[in-house]
Specification:
- The chain has 350 residues and is α+β, with helices and mostly antiparallel strands.
- The chain has three domains: 113 residues, no CATH class; 88 residues, no CATH class; 135 residues, Rossmann fold (3-Layer(aba) Sandwich).
- It contains twelve helices and nine strands.
- 28% of the residues are buried.
C-alpha cells in the first residue's frame, strides 16, 4: 500500500517487456474505491480480480486446445460467453489454484484507485504440473498395494473403501495433464505419463469390480437338543439363521451355499432353555430363553476371528402359550440378532 511514486508495472508496455506472454501468464486489475470502502478492501478486490484474470488465461489456453474448432466457428460471441463462465467459476477459487503465482499491488491515494498485477512463469507451472502428475500416480500405486494387502488379510470391505476413495485422484491427474499440455507445447505421452496412468486406472478398475461383487458368507446353522424341558423344539427352527442372513445381506454381504467361494464361514448353534414353567399359581407364565453359540472363520486368512456364546440373556426371552410359541418369540427379538451382529460385523467390515 505504498503512497510514493507509482510502480513501473502499471505501464502495459513495461509489463509486456518484463513478463512477455510467451513466458508468463498474467492478470492486471484497476479498481476504483467504492463509497464507504476502505483502501484495504479495494486492494483486496483488485488482487482477486488480477488473480482471476491470471487463472482465466491459463484455463482459456486449456480450452483453446480442446475446443479450437468450436471457438473458430462460433466466433467472438462464443468466446465472450466462455470467458464469462470462467469468470463465474473463478470467483469461488483461491490463489493457490495457480501455483507459484506472485502478485504486486499499489494504491493511489490521489485518485483513490487500487491496482494489482498477478503473474506466473510458464516454466514454473510446467514443473509443478509434472511433479503433481507423478505424485498423484504414486499415490494410486500405493492404493493398489494397500488394497491388495487388505484383500490378502481378508479385509475386502476395507479394500473396497480404499479403492473408492482413490477414484477422484484420476480426475486430478486429468486436470493437471490438461494444464501441462497448455503450458508445455512439447509435452508428450512420456511427459504426461499416459501409459503409466492408463495401466493404473485399469488395475484399480478391475480391483473395484472384483470387490463390488460383495463379501461372501457361508452359514452353517444347527439346533442343539438337550433332551429335556429346556428343549422348545425338536429340530432347528432356523429363525435366527434367517434373521442374521437378512441382516448380513443389508450390510453388503452375500450369503452363499458354496463354501469354497466364501470369504467367511459363520457357524451358529442355537438352543433354548426354560426360564419359567408356567406352574405355581394363577399368574404363573411359561417363558423361554433363545440361546446361540457361534464362530466366525475367515477363509482367506484361515483364521477364526470371533467366538461367542449368548446364554440366558435377560433381553432374549419371551412368554408364550407353549414352549415353541415362547421360544419362537424369543428368537425373533431384535436384541439377540443385534448382539450377534455387533460381534461379527466389525470383523467382516474391517
Amino acid at each position: 500500500m505504498a503512497q510514493g511514486n507509482s510502480p513501473a508495472w502499471l505501464d502495459n508496455d513495461v509489463r509486456n517487456m518484463q513478463y512477455p506472454q510467451e513466458k508468463y501468464y498474467s492478470g492486471f486489475a484497476e479498481i476504483s474505491v467504492q463509497q464507504n470502502e476502505t483502501s484495504e478492501n479495494a486492494l483486496n478486490r483488485a488482487k482477486q480480480r488480477a488473480i482471476g484474470e491470471l487463472s482465466e488465461r491459463v484455463r482459456t489456453k486449456v480450452n483453446s486446445i480442446k475446443k479450437q474448432t468450436d471457438l473458430s466457428i462460433q466466433g467472438s460471441d462464443m468466446e465472450e460467453q466462455f470467458l464469462s463462465r470462467f469468470s463465474t467459476d473463478i470467483q469461488t477459487e483461491s490463489q493457490t489454484n495457480v501455483t507459484n503465482s506472485k502478485i504486486n499491488s499499489w494504491y493511489d491515494s490521489k485518485t483513490q484507485t487500487a491496482y494489482a498485477f498477478a503473474y506466473v512463469s510458464k516454466a514454473d507451472l510446467t514443473n509443478y504440473y509434472r511433479k503433481q502428475i507423478d505424485l498423484d500416480l504414486s499415490k494410486q500405486e500405493a492404493v493398489v498395494s494397500i488394497a491388495e494387502e487388505l484383500v490378502s488379510a481378508g479385509k475386502k470391505m476395507s479394500a473396497e473403501r480404499k479403492i473408492k476413495d482413490a477414484l477422484p485422484i484420476f480426475d486430478n491427474i486429468a486436470y493437471n495433464r490438461d494444464l501441462l499440455t497448455a503450458t508445455d507445447a512439447e509435452a508428450d505421452d512420456s511427459t504426461l505419463q499416459t501409459q503409466r496412468g492408463r495401466e493404473l486406472q485399469q488395475t484399480i478398475e478391475k480391483l473395484r469390480i472384483n470387490l463390488e461383487q460383495s463379501t461372501f458368507v457361508y452359514m452353517n446353522c444347527s439346533y442343539e437338543s438337550k433332551g429335556h424341558k429346556d428343549d422348545a423344539f425338536n429340530k432347528d427352527p432356523e429363525i435366527l439363521c434367517g434373521k442374521i442372513a437378512q441382516a448380513l445381506s443389508e450390510n453388503n454381504c452375500s450369503i452363499t451355499d458354496n463354501k469354497d467361494e466364501a470369504d467367511y464361514e459363520l457357524t451358529l448353534v442355537t438352543s433354548t432353555s426354560q426360564r419359567s414353567s408356567g406352574q405355581g399359581g394363577e399368574f404363573a407364565i411359561l417363558s423361554y430363553y433363545a440361546n446361540v453359540k457361534g464362530t466366525l472363520y475367515n477363509r482367506l486368512t484361515q483364521k477364526q476371528t470371533a467366538t461367542f456364546s449368548i446364554l440366558n440373556d435377560p433381553n432374549a426371552y419371551a412368554a408364550g402359550r407353549d414352549p415353541q410359541d415362547a421360544a419362537t418369540k424369543a428368537f425373533k427379538l431384535p436384541a439377540l440378532t443385534n448382539k450377534v451382529l455387533d460381534i461379527i460385523l466389525p470383523k467382516i467390515k474391517n
